[in-house]
Design a protein that fits this description.
With 459 residues, the protein is an all-alpha fold. 75% of the residues lie in helices and 0% in strands. The protein has 22 helices and no strands. The longest helix is centred in the first third of the chain and has 36 residues, at 18-53. It is globular and about 60 Å long. The two termini are 31 Å apart.
Length: 459
């Protein structure tokens, strides 16, 4: 058995202990969970309170504008991705991850003490949007670093499983955010929730950031970057090289993620929560039961994401994705018929079915992306592809859904919109060759630079 294929070896051929690998997995799960808790707690609050407390003077359009602030942060994800990709390819994955964690936590905690429109007028929504922008910059830089720390430490035949560790941070973050919000509806019911209860989950971010910071400090730098640094082979202008040689690949990889992200943001973007609890809407459910249903669906999402990462090591990333797009399509067409029954149990069932497909189109993404780009520009490649995909997919998905329902009076238009995004993700996946198991170290840059796009010999 060669060094590159032995379970005890990293992608560069150096021996990695079981303790080191477990520490990396644990650190990526904890760190991304904290990051996405912070990001999703905002989206959850948008659907429940921000429209009333920060945007109410805007009248009938307050809900649409409130959901639009969820999307605004996505516009700044590429900035975070550009910065993180540049510094991550030059100075390492670890240092970037420390700074993104701190930035996200500070922005989230400040939202927890932000005065409302009633207290300071138009300054309130302006400050809220500025803090959301900081969250977007942090989120744009976080994912690429976490993914590469996990995948570049992984044995060759377990990259999908290791790569699923930062991926499950998304459902874990949603579970934690929805669970804490649901708990606060019990501790501070009714008007108390609007007055102060919603603030507690934001302030809890301070504690979570301290935990995440401690865990991440103890993790070693990625072995791929360490070898690049030792050889002094780091790219001088990684972003320039990325777009000069791999622009089409970035676009296709972004579309793969967009197909997943648009559908996922029905819950992570707060739309289902707001739609199901709107007292003037067709359902009018209580906040607590809906939040618990979303929390439960986060568990099914977590399990399917982790399982999909494991499966992709056995049947390949591409095949796993193709299965996922079919499952996601089924989930899209069953979601609103079940939600619109007004039964919390059936609402949970609709979300649970949806999250199975979401897991299969998200679990293998870390390994898929890492195997698409050459080592010297990999951080830039995965981060920027992810950020662009987030804009094309989830950025304004809740806003679009809200506008479609207001324009048509029906959720069927939303279903067709989500189905269309699923088809886009499927078509983008079909354009890519499966590169499962390709060497990730700097010794194999020539092999990594061969285009994975069907019909192209070189990138």
């Amino acid at each position: 058995m060669s060094a590159a294929s032995s379970p005890g070896f990293t992608p560069t051929g150096t021996i990695a202990s079981t303790v080191d690998r477990r520490r990396v997995v644990f650190a990526t799960v904890v760190g991304t969970t904290v990051e996405w808790y912070d990001f999703f707690i905002y989206a959850t609050a948008v659907g429940l309170v921000f429209g009333q407390l920060f945007f109410a003077p805007l009248g009938a359009n307050s809900a649409i504008i409130a959901f639009a602030t969820v999307g605004v942060s996505f516009l700044f994800r590429p900035l975070g991705a550009f910065l993180a990709g540049h510094f991550g390819d030059k100075y390492g994955r670890k240092v970037v991850l420390m700074w993104t964690l701190i930035l996200m936590g500070a922005a989230t905690a400040l939202i927890g003490v932000l005065p409302t429109y009633e207290a300071i007028g138009v300054a309130a929504p302006i400050l809220l949007v500025l803090l959301r922008i900081l969250q977007g910059i942090s989120a744009g830089g976080e994912w690429g670093g976490a993914v590469l720390m996990a995948v570049e430490h992984a044995p060759k035949q377990r990259r999908g499983l290791f790569g699923a560790s930062p991926q499950i941070g998304v459902p874990l973050g949603l579970l934690l955010a929805s669970g804490v919000m649901a708990l606060m509806t019990i501790i501070a019911p009714g008007d108390a929730f609007l007055q102060w209860g919603w603030r507690i989950p934001f302030l809890l971010s301070v504690v979570l950031i301290l935990v995440g910071y401690y865990v991440r400090r103890r993790v070693e730098e990625s072995p791929v970057f360490t070898e690049l640094a030792e050889r002094k082979e780091k790219a001088r202008m990684p972003i320039v090289q990325l777009f000069r040689k791999h622009t089409l690949l970035v676009v296709i990889a972004a579309l793969v993620f967009a197909g997943n992200n648009a559908v996922g943001y029905m819950t992570t973007g707060g739309y289902i929560q707001g739609y199901a609890t709107n007292p003037d809407g067709p359902i009018g459910l209580e906040r607590g039961p809906v939040l618990w249903a979303v929390t439960g669906s986060a568990v099914t999402w977590l399990l399917s994401t982790f399982f999909a990462g494991w499966v992709s090591d056995r049947i390949g990333r591409r095949t796993t994705y193709l299965i996922g797009w079919i499952l996601q399509g089924i989930g899209v067409f069953t979601l609103f018929p079940l939600v619109n029954t007004g039964n919390v149990g059936l609402l949970f069932l609709g979300l649970a079915i949806l999250t199975i497909g979401l897991g299969f189109t998200y679990g293998p993404q870390a390994a898929l992306y890492a195997e698409l780009f050459p080592a010297s520009i990999r951080f830039s490649g995965v981060s920027i592809s992810y950020a662009i995909g987030a804009i094309l997919g989830g950025a304004f998905a809740p806003t679009i859904a809200q506008a479609l329902v207001q324009a048509t009076g029906s959720t069927m238009a939303v279903t067709w919109y989500l189905a269309g995004m699923t088809v886009i993700g499927l078509l983008a996946t079909l354009l890519l060759r499966d590169r499962s198991g390709i060497p990730l170290g700097p010794d194999h840059e020539d092999q990594q630079s061969v285009s994975p796009i069907y019909g192209l010999a070189k990138a």
